[in-house]
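Hi C.,

You asked whether I'd gotten around to modeling the 218-residue construct. I have! Everything is below, sequence then structure, no commentary in between.
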Amino acid sequence: MKPIIAPSVLASDFANLQSEVEMLNKSQADWLHVDVMDGRFVPNISFGFPVMEAIKRYAQKPLDVHLMIVEPEQYIERFRTAGADTITVHSEACTHLHRTVQQIQASGAKAGVALNPHTPVHLLEDIIAELDLVLIMSVNPGFGGQKFIENTYRKVEALKDLIIQRNSQALIEIDGGVNQDNARLLLEKGADALVAGSFVFSAADPLQTIAALKSSAK
């Protein structure tokens, strides 16, 4: 089965946002990954509803929205209205994670939970069966272009085991430092979806780079 490829538009050229999204429409990408940062949960600020609505206006593929924000439950409906197809919140940012997951699914979006590099997989034991997606951060969240954390492979294996044990249908998504060198092993360990930002948008041929990632599985 070919992996799901989700280029992160945070790494795109915002001065040419329409053409960048249209390029992704023509590519073999499956989703458009949208990183939302508030300057509080992570030490960076990205963009909010107006930019996301602009992305949605041109996108022909699902929007995979990753909320790196505090109190995400306050904004679920607004992100859904703005075009989010999947909404992923951080385990570390949610006091009542199960309630927030239910809120996402009630909005009509698929629900994901993200784990920072230091957060163990076992914390999802009681909720994994309810999730549509788990996003493993393979860098510390907040900035693109960081070095991939090698411990990610072990976490993917542990998460895959948990998904099987609990008969969950959750997909495993990897975000941070993904490239052609680590994509295949991530998929072999159990990943289903790969987020790639600067690796795609800094490439001489983004279309070919996305196609190569899509072909990473044996």
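If it helps when you're writing up: The chain is about 30% helix and 20% strand.

Thanks,
B.
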